[in-house]
Amino acid sequence: MTAPISTYRLQIRPAFDLAAAAEIADYLRDLGVDWAYLSPLLAAAEGSDHGYDVVDPTIVDPRRGGAEGLARFSAAARDAGLGVLVDIVPNHQGVAVPAENPWWWDVLRHGRGSAHAEAFDIDWEHGGGKVGLPILGSTLRQAVAAGEIEVAPVTAGEADGAEGVARYYDHVLPLADGTAPAAATTDPATVDAVLAAQHWRAAFWRDDATELNYRRFFAVNTLAGVRVDVPAVFEASHVEILRWLREGLADGLRIDHPDGLADPGGYLEQLAEATGGAYVVVEKILEHAATDHAEQLPSWWATAGTTGYDAMAEIDRALIDPAGESRLDELDATLRSADAPASYDEIVREAKRAVADTLQAAEVGRLVRCLPDDVRDELGEDVARDAFAELLTSFSVYRVYPPVGDELVAEAVAAASASRPDLADAIATLAPLVTAGDTELSRRFGQTTGPVMAKGVEDSAFYRYPRLGTLTEVGGDPGVFSLDIAGFHRAQAHRQAMWPHALTALSTHDTKRSEDVRARLSVIAEMPERWSDALGRLRTIASTGDGRLDDLLWQAIVGAWPASPERLRDYAEKASREGGIITTWTDPDEDAEARIAALVDAATSGEARATIEEVVGELTAPGRSNSLAAKLLQLTAPGVPDVYQGTELWDLSLVDPDNRRDVDFAERRELLAKLDGGWHPEIDDSGAAKLLVVSRALRLRRDRPELFTRYAPLPVVGPAAEHAVAFDRGGAVTVATRLPVGLAARGGWGDTVVMVPPGRHTDQLTGRAWDGGAVRLADLLGTYPVALLAAERPTGARPTAQRPTAPEENA
Questions:
Q1: Contact, 184 vs 150, CB < 8 A?
Q2: Who contacts 19 (Cβ-Cβ below 8 Å, separation ≥6)?
Q3: d(CA 714, CA 291)
Q4: Signal peptide span per the entry (predicted)?
């Protein structure tokens, strides 16, 4: 199996399709990229910019270029010497518009008799043989009585194969064969009679806890779970994907959300067999990243590793000043409301329990139905539901993989019992059942812990605990403030030993803030008093009424500045509704949202704008130092570094869809050509200094892989030693500045030196040569806050072009 040296993620969508991607293959080569990494390509819902709502797994999305576009892109990639990694979505399909998804349409039309009934994870018994569709704005009785539902014969071109349809505003559903009326009608008696004969049942959207009977992606009703654990379903849903690998159109796969699958390890084994052991990485979040107790990726999985959120957490925290923690804790204490949880752990517990009781109530109900009859009768449905919700809330990781993980289950049982002593006996009854081998209950419990974690932590708690925005990032634990240099080195040595071909990331399509926003916000830890003062002034100008939400929004504004009012309004709406404290997605509070909008409006003019620009002026230079440091660490540390589209220049993006904006590749081509012409840029608004770091690091890894064969920390000695992190990869030496504000306050590097291995080395950023031994950082880092030294080749040595090969046991 051939592994990439580096990747570059491209978001393929109608506005930037495969033909457009083919046009920049030569730019990616010139940048130094080894593999192009594409977002999902299978046919997705109309209007989808992300592609994770696949509606037909048998074809490449025509709106993204279709099969011809993929062939054209692959040819261009090959001509540029690039491999191809493609993101796939085995867990779910998009069903928002049933007519777009031929499998789902057929299931709704034919019910259990459909050729695709086995493809979707439907609890037919609970639905009385029907698929529950909570899509109505009122009860079914009310909708029918109001004439809102029409049943009619199918019109030309409206649906494939169905004789008739039911229409409810924008929703169009197929009628079972032989049940269509002779003419369109909204007559309640006729509609009632027709609907009673269908294989689906429409219901009030607020009743999804009881009406929904198919597994979803998290809490998204329009993404229905797919049963790839069934061999025939795996084959049908992967036929096109396997063609790409078989015909050389792609070289590897990125697996979205493996935690949602019934048996992730089994799926990966099946995929490895079907692909002949192609390169595969998994989008797996490892909880407690950047700590000595971090969750470990199952070593027996057939994968090269994760997509890199764990590396992101390590790098971010290595550049955060631990001295700022106590002051930011004090600030948070003054901001939180009297009834708000004080600690992050309490925030998480409250948020996860709310998710288990609401957004995941349908899934918890299914767990209760999976209990043996005698256990369910003994506990009673209400107690069983309560105990399951508490146990799910207490899990510290996304899921466990029986028979491994008994200790984590025991920890969750202990925590849940301590939190709810009244449920201790019920929880003790459930505990052995949820890990009892290969049972439906144990499988479904494993599929439910992840959504409770994701919705409770990433999509709720992260928006309720803003003490430092850098920390509330996917894959990281905001309760872990910083990582010392020794801890950073331990983490990299572990990755080199265990997962050398896993991806590493700093920005992705899923990150809450781009790498450069986080790098700027990290500076706040070095000047917490300054931020506290500025925030106080800003809150007197405009406030949402919730101190923590104010902190979150003002940090986002400062981090992304300059940003258009539209971008900031979109972020503020999403962040406040996700947090769910003063407004929510399901029940927006008009007064609260008016205050939120007023805060954003205030930021763009007058006194607030002046304060923002004053603070940004202080954060920008050290933030850019952090950005360059983080990027060089990521690009040269163990693992396969991924560059998210456009982030080779400064990128001040917020959460999606903000981070999927158009990328100006013409600008990047022009700047790269200037760099290759000998230009040494300043660290300015152009972002060319970051492009210099990215291109030189990527090229060195690609062109001289023999310099990246090990990981060895390098000593930094002297009065400012804590402000540098340095390591040797086997001939490539990385030196990066950390805590730049503190470094400036102490007057610079002074006599601090880094111990460079023997021999002559050339800095890839400045072209200056250095001999091994004690190198003064004041000299080495005089131009840029980072340096990348490459050992000169021995006289007569030939360039090395060998690609890395992943070990067979993790193939």
A1: yes
A2: 65, 69, 72, 73
A3: 21
A4: none
Closest CA relative to residue 152, chosen from 188, 98, 110, 191: 191
What DSSP character marks residue 466? Answer: -
**Cβ distance 123 to 114 under 8 Å?**
no
> Is pLDDT of 73 > 80?
yes
Take residue 134 and report the two structure tokens written for it: 């909570």
Backbone angles phi, psi at 552, to 5 degrees: -60, -50
Residues in the chain: 811
- 3 state SS of 9: strand
CB neighbours of 438 closer than 8 A, spacing ≥ 6? Answer: none
- Residue 42 bridge partners (DSSP): 60
Q: What pLDDT, in 10s, does the model give residues 697-727?
A: 999 999 999 999 999 999 999 999 999 999 9
> Please, is 514 exposed, middle or buried when counting C-beta atoms within 10 Å of its C-beta (0-12, 13-18, 19+)?
buried
Distances (CA, A) of 231 to 235, 236, 237, 274, 282: 6, 9, 10, 12, 20
Distance CA 397, CA 450 (A): 8
Under DSSP, is residue 515 helix (H, G, I), strand (E, B) or coil?
Answer: helix
CB of 163 within 8 A of CB of 175? Answer: yes
For the chain, how long is the longest CA-to-CA vector?
Answer: 91
Bridge partners of 224, per DSSP, are 93, 216
Mean predicted confidence (pLDDT) in 233-255: 98
AA letter at 808: E
The residue behind tokens 């130094």 is 32
User: Taking a C-beta distance cutoff of 8 angstroms, is the pair 390, 421 a contact?
Assistant: no
Q: Provide the edge-to-edge strand list for the sheet that holds 216-217.
A: 92-94, 220-225, 216-217
Are β-strands 149-153 and 131-136 bridged in parallel, bridged antiparallel, or unpaired?
unpaired
Q: What are phi and psi of 680, to 5 degrees?
A: -110, 100
* Cβ burial, residue 372 (10 Å; 0-12/13-18/19+): exposed
pLDDT in tens, 317-347: 999 999 999 999 999 999 999 999 999 999 9
Q: pTM higher than 0.70, yes or no?
A: yes
Q: Which residues contact 65 (CB under 8 A, 6 or more apart)?
A: 12, 17, 18, 19, 72, 73
Q: Nearest 5°: phi and psi at 475?
A: 90, -10
Question: Is omega for the bond preceding 40 within 30 degrees of 0, making it cis?
Answer: no
Q: Which two tokens stand for residue 167?
A: 């229409």
Question: In which region does residue 66 sit, left (phi positive, over 0), alpha (psi from -120 to 50) or beta (all else)?
Answer: left
Residue 791 CA to its chain's centroid (Å): 36
Do you find a cis peptide bond into 372, omega within 30 degrees of 0?
A: no
Q: Distance between CA 779 and CA 787 in Å, rounded?
A: 11
Count CB atoms within 10 A of the CB of residue 452.
Answer: 28
The pair of three-digit structure tokens given for residue 347, joined into one six-digit string: 């925030």
- b/e string for 128-163 if b means 16 or more Cβ within 10 A? eebbbbbbbeeebeebbeeebbbbbebeeeebeebe
Geometric angle at alpha carbon 656, from 662 and 687, rounded to 5°: 50
Q: What's the DSSP call for residue 803? A: P
**Pairing state between β 7-10 and 216-217:** unpaired
CA distance 300 to 74: 32
User: Which stretch of 98-112, 239-253, 287-301 has the lowest confidence by average pLDDT?
Assistant: 287-301
Distance CA 673, CA 696 (A): 13
Q: What is the CA radius of gyration of the chain?
A: 27
Residue 674 and residue 158: Cα distance in Å, rounded?
54
CA distance 108 to 202: 11
Q: What is the pLDDT of residue 802?
A: 54
For residue 606, the tally of other CB atoms under 10 A from its CB is 12
